[in-house]
Amino acid sequence: MNTPASPKQRLIIIGNGMVGHHLVEQLVEQGALERYQVTVFGEERHLAYDRVHLSEYFSGRDAESLALSTADYYAEHGIELRLNEAVFAIDRDVSEVVTDQDRYPYDRVVLATGSFPFVPPIPGNDREGCLVYRTLEDLDAIRAAAEHANTGVVVGGGLLGLEAANALRGLDLDTAVVEFAPRLMPMQVDSEGGELLREKIETLGVQVLTERATQRIEDGDTARHRMVFQDDKILETDLIVFSAGIRPRDELARDCGLEIGERGGVVIDDQCLTSDPQILAIGEVALWQQSIFGLVAPGYQMAKAALATLTDGETRFQGADMSTKLKLLGVDVGSIGDAHGNQNPGARNFRYLDQIKQEYRKLVVSSDGKKLLGAMLVGDNGYFDTLMQYYDNGLELPEDPASLILPSSEGAPALGPDALPETATICSCHNVTKGDICASLDAGAVDLATVKGDTKASSGCGGCAALLKSVVDHELTARGVEVDQSICEHFHYTRQELFDIVRIEGIKTFSELVEKHGHGLGCDICKPAVASILASCFNEPITDAAHIPLQDTNDTFMANMQKNGTYSVVPRIAGGEITPDKLVVLGQVAQKYDLYTKITGGQRIDLFGARLEDLPDIWGELIEAGFETGHAYGKSLRTVKSCVGSTWCRYGVQDSVGMAIRLENRYKGLRAPHKIKFGVSGCTRECAEAQSKDIGVIATEHGWNLYVCGNGGMRPRHAELFATDLSDEELFSTIDRFLMFYVRTADRLQRTSVWRENLEGGLDYLKEVILDDSLGLGDELERQMQTVIDNYQCEWANAISDPDKLKRFRSFVNDERPDPDIIMTSERGQLRPA
Amino acid sequence: MNTATALKDEAHTDVTWQPLCTKADLVAFSGVAAWLETAEGPAQVAIFYLPGLEQELYALEHRDPFSGANVIARGIVGDIKGDAVVASPIYKQHFRLKDGSCVEDDSVTLRTWPIRLDGEKIVIEA
């Protein structure tokens, strides 16, 4: 390891956690390895792994998939990685690092030793089965202990404590959280937020005990341990996990005489230099301006500052934003800036509390109400991103700041692309700002795809796709570039124009359309779009030879592809009504083909894990029992959700189930630009949540009220009242017209909610076209819908009667075997992908 | 069958062309998967058939490197700026049929095999 007479400086990094590894990546990416010969020491036997997602270790992820890198990566870049070798001392007199194996000379050292979990000094805290939650070894120990345990307690109700509680729940233990403070997550939320958090977590079956100080731990009667609290109350449990905060691993620095903070931590400056300029410290071991930063993002920022220090760069550590957006035990918690409002004298609050939906939101604003200083969210982080934009970029708040935390209503101000400053983060996965996008456009990009390629924006979780597109479109227009609305490079037409061409010229195949009006082979954008248009116009089976190469894999195999290449199967259960006989058949089929079963949000049953070659047999049995395809795979009508209605319910005023079934049977098989969902409620109590659907129908004393263009999902939108007190027949004809107008005029993959928002003239225009027939299209739209209805056939029934179509359902055309790489494991009594 | 790769057959005498399936197994302008036994072990091959084009047959690795699932044959076939491609059905990355290279990520390439039509048989060099 002591390579002779290297001209490079010797850099030793002590610690191979997330932050230590990030520094290594920075060294590699910024070309610093030309200056430094790097050696990394890791005390654990594992290479750096993702501690943020540690709890997933219990839900199926293994050490390998949590790893942030590979030994090959280190080897490839000539970095010596010495795992399982703890450093004992830094001998500053001779500039050597000492381990139990050797002494290693250095020119620079970076301490990235992180922290350790604090275990309160309680008598009995070292009993067997008293554990901590920090490393993979800790998790192995917890898992082993849980095998002989029924109950578990987490001491500490902060972020990590709740993570640990989730892990214990995942191990099927009856779980309790014991917190010293009067509420959970005292750092992130106030008392009202904490109370709501407690309610939500208790609903999950986790017991929450606050204001409890454990005095001692001793032998229990009904379980292994008994915890005795300050008031002599007791709690018995088999397993205890301490998660009462972290302490910096500063012993190396202490022993070699570096400056240490009063309450621990290696003191660093903006360059991450310790009191010995040969030695730097980063991450949770480092104390900057009296603060330890217990999150990974500030650690990464310190790594970047340390790199600058090592390479004479400019970057300095200037503190870090501790805003966090979390999902703990399934509960959203968000905290932005000065969430408690105690760092800014004169700050004013806005608060919104909904104890029914269990949501709490708070804004902390400047005394003049113009700037956002902080925010707190419990229950719904959907508000986080917009608030973060206001906070991060110092944007002036709207006149009524409360609108930012009130449940979305008509007037809620959305941030348009021109309101965002250059520094606004558009893609948080790859940290792409609006400025980066503008730079890509200035460098010559003229379309969305090029911007994506240049910046990586929207290639992570994809949640920013719509925002990215609106920013790109807006900036292109601002630059005088005419935004090309062509569907793709093969057709110089919009989807709406292609629809009209197909309809007017009566074109029935993709090949005819591309020959007459496009060029090339087509692609995965235009082919499914044209397939959908052809189906909307003529409703021929999508598996016919001329159409099959156009379909997305879900339509090709009439099932939904899952991440391991198997499929899920969803038979239609119109209106959510199903006979016991049919329920039994679903169970039998799932048992026979080893399928994972789950109830969907649309009142159906989803059967997962079906192998390609089993699909025809599965459907043979389902069709035999009277089922038909549910089109869960298609951009088409999905479900009509209903409440039980006047048939059973004391409050119902109409037969909502009967109407739901009629509607579902009327529009099943209708292919559209995107999926379509309906809801029918039997009274104004609205138990079917119809106002969150594309089409919502709510019973009145006199008939039905129709709501349109609602949405759940990523961007919830309430449906708008469109017509009132319709008779059954009026309801059908209005929906016929509405849906067909949407099918004809929307962009590809545009839900009714987005279509409606982009529709010039808005709801009034839509009412004129559909209800007043201002374009004289009414009859034509109804006729067109009747054609689709008349030509409906179950695609699966059609396919299984055709041996040629069934040939496609083989894993291999030349071999009977199933795909041997599909491996399942069992969880909670069912199979899931391994 | 007049594919560029097929001509290599004459140049090299040590290659083995083995029959894989028949023309009737193929789906025009789409893909099917086949099981291939080779000296190095078995492989899953995605076969794409573009009748009437200069090169009609392509054989690529069936495994999608981004998801690890064996699904490439189930992707949509098309072209990007004239290069024939298949789009992975899982996360939609595009792979060029001629050399397996990924359009979105230079560092990723699917393995390819020479493949041709021999009468009604599809034969592959492996």
Automatic annotation (TrEMBL), chain A:
What does the entry give for GO biological process?
nitrate assimilation
> What are the Nitrite/Sulfite reductase ferredoxin-like domain coordinates in residue numbering?
562-624
Name the InterPro entries for this protein.
BFD-like_2Fe2S-bd_dom (IPR007419), BFD-like_2Fe2S-bd_dom_sf (IPR041854), FAD/NAD-bd_sf (IPR036188), FAD/NAD-binding_dom (IPR023753), FAD/NAD-linked_Rdtase_dimer_sf (IPR016156), NasD-like (IPR052034), NiRdtase/SiRdtase_haem-b_fer (IPR005117), Nit/Sulf_reduc_fer-like_dom_sf (IPR036136)
PROSITE patterns associated with the record: NIR_SIR
Domain (FAD/NAD(P)-binding) ranges:
10-297
Gene Ontology terms, MF aspect: 2 iron, 2 sulfur cluster binding; 4 iron, 4 sulfur cluster binding; flavin adenine dinucleotide binding; heme binding; metal ion binding; NADP binding; nitrite reductase activity
Please tell me where [4Fe-4S] cluster binds in this chain: C643, C649, C683, C687
Pathway field of the UniProt record reads:
Nitrogen metabolism; nitrate reduction (assimilation)
- Which intervals hold domain NADH-rubredoxin oxidoreductase C-terminal? 323-387
> Keywords assigned by UniProt?
2Fe-2S, 4Fe-4S, FAD, Flavoprotein, Heme, Iron, Iron-sulfur, Metal-binding, Nitrate assimilation, Oxidoreductase
> Can you quote the record's cofactor note?
Binds 1 siroheme per subunit. Binds 1 [4Fe-4S] cluster per subunit.
What are the required cofactors?
Answer: siroheme; [4Fe-4S] cluster; [2Fe-2S] cluster; FAD
Q: Which Pfam families match?
A: Fer2_BFD, NIR_SIR, NIR_SIR_ferr, Pyr_redox_2, Rubredoxin_C
Q: Which Gene3D superfamilies match?
A: 3.30.390.30, BFD-like [2Fe-2S]-binding domain (1.10.10.1100), FAD/NAD(P)-binding domain (3.50.50.60), Sulfite Reductase Hemoprotein, domain 1 (3.30.413.10)
Stretches assigned to the BFD-like [2Fe-2S]-binding domain: 426-472
Ranges where the Nitrite/sulphite reductase 4Fe-4S domain occurs:
634-755
Q: Which residues bind siroheme?
A: C687
The Swiss-Prot or TrEMBL record describes its family as follows: Belongs to the nitrite and sulfite reductase 4Fe-4S domain family.
What is the name of this protein? Assimilatory nitrite reductase (NAD(P)H) large subunit
Whose protein is this, by species? Franzmannia pantelleriensis
UniProtKB/TrEMBL annotation, chain B:
Q: Which GO terms describe its biological process?
A: nitrate assimilation
Q: Please provide the record's keywords in A-Z order.
A: Nitrate assimilation, Oxidoreductase
Q: Where is the Rieske-like [2Fe-2S] domain?
A: 16-124
**Source superkingdom:** Bacteria
Q: What is this protein called?
A: Nitrite reductase (NADH) small subunit
| Keyword Oxidoreductase part of the UniProt annotation | yes
- What GO MF terms are annotated? 2 iron, 2 sulfur cluster binding; nitrite reductase [NAD(P)H] activity
**InterPro entries noted in UniProt:** NirD (IPR017881), Rieske-like_NirD (IPR012748), Rieske_2Fe-2S_sf (IPR036922)
One Pfam family of this chain: Rieske_2
PANTHER family from the xrefs? NITRITE REDUCTASE (NADH) SMALL SUBUNIT, PTHR40562
